[in-house]
């Protein structure tokens, strides 16, 4: 018998998530899970986590790279005393979930895993591993692939719709590559840079993460705080990003239709092709456009600039 979301309701549980889209999803779902609002968090120490979790109890652990099993083991050892103090745990991944959920379940406490919204076609490697761990509750956000131990869980995307507005040419662009290490994303930068060379009048802000470059016009930063990121979304006409679910949600919340590019594992831009799944999901619903298509076609770019996004509550 696997644990369920009902088993963590009202309890002081560990809220576990790697930074980036995983942490964004868990912060958005936290209120809907019904756990003790004073529940402690476990994540990495970054500007994003410090902004999102300001005022909350947070236990920081060293960064765990994708498929970094030594990092998972290290985090498990560091968190042993902490895991004695909580009544359960819930996680949206990624590898950090492996450091906590199996140990919590072995202690006879409820452990629940919510698969990322970006996994449109099936579970991640973390999800597949946890499916082999007895009693860990498993939930997905896309009903199409849920079989066996997987149950239908709450979705972070909610209900977005677009509406027409008067299209204008972009005067400013915010480009964000995410912060996942050690994966560079020069392909996205080069695509935007080609557009900038044709439109030198456009102001550009680049959040490059670990993709250090010295050939970029405009302002270049490694990483913005959550507050600075929100300001950048409001101050720029066009938003370009990698197809990470966290950044996509933030852009949609700001009212923009994002231009997205999926990282490719064959080019060593990520560990797998899950970003392609969420990109296709959003493009098919008119909630995103491909960077290379929109920046290479004036009509497509005008179509993007001629739409705004609203979030319907409920």
Query: What share of residues is helical?
Result: 25-40%
Question: Strand portion, in percent?
Answer: 15-25%
Number of strands: 15
Q: Which stretches of 5+ consecutive residues score pLDDT under 50?
A: none
What summary fits the major beta sheet? 7 strands, parallel
Gyration radius (Cα, Å) is 20 Å
Number of helices: 12
Q: What gross morphology would you assign?
A: globular
Mean pLDDT comes to 93
Q: Would you list the SSEs in sequence order as H and E?
A: EHEHEHHEHEHEEEEHEEHEHEHEHHE
Widest β-sheet, arrangement of strands: 3-2-1-4-5-6-7
Helix/strand structural class: alpha/beta
Protein architecture, described:
This protein has 314 residues and is α/β, with parallel strands linked by helices. It contains 12 helices and 15 strands. It has helices at 21-33, 47-52, 69-78, 80-83, 96-106, 125-130, 186-198, 226-235, 245-253, 274-284, 291-296, 298-305, and strands at 14-16, 41-43, 58-60, 89-91, 111-114, 137-140, 150-152, 159-164, 172-176, 203-207, 219-221, 238-242, 259-261, 289-290, 307-312. The chain has a 7-stranded parallel beta sheet with strand order 3-2-1-4-5-6-7. Helix 3 packs across helix 5 (96-106).
């Amino acid at each position: 018998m696997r644990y369920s979301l009902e088993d963590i309701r009202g309890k002081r549980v560990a809220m576990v998530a790697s930074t980036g889209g995983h942490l964004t999803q868990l912060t958005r779902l936290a209120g809907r899970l019904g756990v003790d609002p004073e529940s402690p968090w476990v994540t990495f120490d970054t500007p994003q986590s410090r902004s999102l979790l300001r005022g909350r109890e947070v236990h920081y652990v060293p960064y765990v790279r994708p498929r970094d099993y030594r990092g998972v083991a290290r985090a498990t050892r560091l968190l042993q005393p902490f895991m004695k103090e909580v009544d359960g745990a819930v996680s949206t991944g990624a590898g950090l979930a492996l450091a906590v959920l199996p140990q919590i379940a072995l202690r006879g406490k409820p452990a629940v895993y919510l698969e990322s919204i970006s996994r449109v076609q099936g579970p991640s490697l973390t999800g597949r591993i946890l499916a082999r761990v007895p009693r860990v509750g498993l939930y997905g956000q896309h009903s199409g692939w849920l079989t066996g131990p997987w149950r239908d869980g709450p979705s972070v995307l909610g209900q977005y719709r677009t509406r027409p507005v008067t299209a204008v040419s972009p005067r400013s662009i915010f480009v964000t590559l995410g912060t996942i290490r050690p994966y560079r994303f020069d392909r996205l930068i080069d695509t935007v840079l080609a557009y900038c060379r044709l439109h030198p009048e456009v102001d550009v802000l680049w959040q490059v993460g670990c993709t250090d470059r010295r050939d970029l016009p405009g302002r270049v930063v490694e990483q913005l705080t959550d507050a600075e990121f929100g300001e950048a979304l409001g101050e720029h006409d066009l938003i370009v990003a990698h197809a990470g679910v966290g950044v996509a949600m933030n852009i949609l919340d700001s009212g923009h239709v994002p231009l997205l590019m999926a990282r490719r594992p064959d080019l060593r831009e990520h560990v797998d092709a899950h970003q392609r799944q969420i990109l296709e999901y959003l493009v098919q619903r008119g909630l995103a456009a491909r960077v290379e298509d929109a920046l290479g076609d004036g009509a497509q770019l005008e179509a993007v600039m001629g739409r705004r996004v609203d979030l319907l509550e409920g």
